[in-house]
Design a protein that fits this description.
242 residues; 9 helices; 9 strands; disordered N terminus; mitochondrion; transit peptide; Epimerase_deHydtase
Amino acid sequence: MSTSSTTSTAIIGSTGLVGSHILSTYVTSPSTKSQIQTISRRAPANPTNSSLLSPTVNGDTSTWPTLLSSLVPLPTTVISSLGTTRVAAGGIANQWKIDHDLNVDLAKAAKTAGVKNFVFISSAGTRGALSTKVPYSQMKRGVEDTIQSLDFEHGIILRPGLILGEREKAQHAGQGLLYGVVRGLGRWVSLGLQDRFAQEAEVIARAAVKAARMAEEGKAPSRWWVLEQDEIVKLGREEWKE
């Protein structure tokens, strides 16, 4: 794969589980020829000390939409994997401010500034029968609807299932056991069985990067593109090439 040298990418959520893999995929890829910008509370990892990485660190998240719209060069594509947990945020109301409100504000700022493509890491089940009753699904659904209404050249949504990977802090007490069971199914029963409801963070990240590149190259299947779990696995593992 190759991308035009005139494109640039901004990553929001670059210090999180999926976001850090998105960033590392870009900075370690020989296909990356243009600047990768990030906005985060703390400095992101730069595994190759790439000169293409241009981080913006600001602990006040309320400034991020303005910071995004003032990035130079203006990114062609924004990828947001921004999200937190109810426990880390201190309750549903605070989680909503990050997972929903900030993502919505970032998408609106990107559109106003002239960003062409917006990629959002959402979640499986946002359109399920019970989604309107589940706060987490409501947050993700609201962001998806906003991105679609803004009519970017390409709005791309990834809806992974359970996200597997090494987190700095466990989300709950049984996380390690759960991950072990899921990976055991993939190892001893069928990887396809695991793929139906769980994906590795690295696979999700690669799928996001490939989808973004396809949009930039005019190869996305549609302006509004939703990748469910099977397509995430297809792009991020089965068809991934550098």
